[in-house]
């Protein structure tokens, strides 16, 4: 059937009724002409692909209008190549054709990306974000314009209220960061460390404890075979300026008499000296902390020709721990006041300046420390004599070959100009030799540096150019990646490099060379404000970064005491263990009884002071001293007596029972008082008479050998040795009536190595074995109160169950730092024992 119009008619049957439907064809909406065909999607994609493959051409002049002619066929011969150069400069050749190379790379990239990929598909997988594909700011800057073109326009909702939320103010980022430093101080590298390290508040600073990654063993290997750096800018620097004779008098009253701080190699400024600081005229009592002294060279400050050498002003820096900075400042100030009072007949002036916040310091430890420094920093040509030593550092395979304490003064360029740095490669001859010789001897001229001048440090406190300014200069280089050439306007930063050997202070010298357990490195001092430029370059060399845990581990592996944990008798030591006792006691209290050690059920000596002895060493108990809080030796039961019982103990016990401890009351300023002391005496002797003190230094080994070989009493010999050192520094000798208390309250630092199994821990008890424990050795330590492991190889053949806990009277000391030594491959520890108990063991061995 057909309709009138000639179009076909389709019939449909619905419920038996015949219907007819007529469909009329319509003309196409868009005529298929040639113009619309070009606008189709296929043609648009083809045009887009063609445009992406276009290579830009650099236009150097007007195009030529002359008709093109076919090039004639040229035949190359030997004569036609005579005009070509024999060699070309590759760098200049690339610079001349940098536009063509860039255009080719751009065309290749656009042809590859625009043909089949969108912006988000061109990013690496770790930068792709499905939920952020609507945000063009989440892509690199070079792709944001293209990302906006691919995105659909988003209709933004109009905010009803423009008022800020309550409590929120529009303050800058700097103000927000400063607000978080009200109760602590951040280092300049704090933000870098906070992203990668565990942070804690210590000594008024926010310091890095350890890396968040597993880095304990790698850090130890880096200290032995590579390099590891730590920011030690939290250490304080105290400057003392005075005439040389007065300056020596000030230091004599508060420095360790065993330290040769007045040798010419130290006073000239060629070397730095490690010593201990004591309270004024209280040696051997009143130990404050270890300290590093650095003298300013004589030629660093201009002097008048008429001024005598003894009256010329000299400057010395004291590099001390932040926890005792105020104590050291107070001791130096007291000593200076006494010196000025004694020299009232002449005009004298002593200046004491606090340089905290003016200097920053990095400690780099490891054999590759020299390569890290020379690779990250570039010395200027006007560095003086220090440049000779700087050139010699580049060829060293170990920092142990540099003389101990050597000071090198330099002037370096801004490290950001030569970023990224590269480590210096060792010559082939130096790689074969284990420790090459260092050919430059220490001298005062080599230690000269402008860092001693306050005006120079203040001028460099803030870098003149920001990183953005340097990046703009770097972007103008024709060859990408080339380093910036120093300009006259760029800063020159003065620095000091001090060789550091981690070894006991005033310990016996090793003439055979560096010990395997010792670690060596450098201390880098530079003005404040340049921490991040220096830090970025040093860490980019591949060296590891450590915190306080790694700093302590280096001392432990080298057998050196770490401050303040291992310095018994100092106020910082007491404060450290008080805080640690509170933390560990609280942790033990909140642990269920079924999952915690039963310290409350263990036998003596855990009940001497209740629970306090579990969390803190009881030095008063092993030395027979009495703390000012009461009578910890007697404890809760009167039948407990001290280890070293004095002759008049019976009289004191009777007086305690009858008079209610009336004879043990003392003033709050006295930290310790001996049981056998004279309560009627006054002055500093009464305060120091029974205070615990540590016998250390070069004279300690010789004194112990002399006392062990002699069968007479040790009291006169100890007093004679101490008085000789006091008289050497112009101090009054101690009276003879303090000889007994002086020996009784003395401690000796010892190293402990396990011959068998076991690992000592902190606060482990050290026993002096005797009787049935004689087969186990002379010194035994206890990890817990119920387990004894002896310091003898024969302990492996004896069952621990058959060993009974030694009597509390055999305790001679405690472990201050104990752990598994990675260097020795077994358990090791540092501790302190009683001098009387140690002499008893040594004399028994001699017999």
UniProtKB/TrEMBL annotation:
<protein>
    <recommendedName>
        <fullName>Pop1 N-terminal domain-containing protein</fullName>
    </recommendedName>
</protein>
<feature type="region of interest" description="Disordered">
    <location>
        <begin position="465"/>
        <end position="485"/>
    </location>
</feature>
<dbReference type="GO" id="GO:0001682">
    <property type="term" value="P:tRNA 5'-leader removal"/>
</dbReference>
<feature type="region of interest" description="Disordered">
    <location>
        <begin position="21"/>
        <end position="73"/>
    </location>
</feature>
<keyword id="KW-0819">tRNA processing</keyword>
<feature type="compositionally biased region" description="Polar residues">
    <location>
        <begin position="57"/>
        <end position="67"/>
    </location>
</feature>
<dbReference type="InterPro" id="IPR055079">
    <property type="entry name" value="POP1_C"/>
</dbReference>
<feature type="domain" description="Pop1 N-terminal">
    <location>
        <begin position="93"/>
        <end position="159"/>
    </location>
</feature>
<dbReference type="InterPro" id="IPR039182">
    <property type="entry name" value="Pop1"/>
</dbReference>
<feature type="compositionally biased region" description="Basic and acidic residues">
    <location>
        <begin position="466"/>
        <end position="475"/>
    </location>
</feature>
<feature type="domain" description="POPLD">
    <location>
        <begin position="521"/>
        <end position="619"/>
    </location>
</feature>
<dbReference type="InterPro" id="IPR009723">
    <property type="entry name" value="Pop1_N"/>
</dbReference>
<feature type="domain" description="POP1 C-terminal">
    <location>
        <begin position="799"/>
        <end position="845"/>
    </location>
</feature>
<dbReference type="Pfam" id="PF08170">
    <property type="entry name" value="POPLD"/>
</dbReference>
<feature type="domain" description="Pop1 N-terminal">
    <location>
        <begin position="172"/>
        <end position="242"/>
    </location>
</feature>
<dbReference type="GO" id="GO:0000172">
    <property type="term" value="C:ribonuclease MRP complex"/>
</dbReference>
<dbReference type="GO" id="GO:0005655">
    <property type="term" value="C:nucleolar ribonuclease P complex"/>
</dbReference>
<feature type="region of interest" description="Disordered">
    <location>
        <begin position="671"/>
        <end position="691"/>
    </location>
</feature>
<dbReference type="InterPro" id="IPR012590">
    <property type="entry name" value="POPLD_dom"/>
</dbReference>
<keyword id="KW-0539">Nucleus</keyword>
<dbReference type="Pfam" id="PF22770">
    <property type="entry name" value="POP1_C"/>
</dbReference>
<dbReference type="Pfam" id="PF06978">
    <property type="entry name" value="POP1_N"/>
</dbReference>
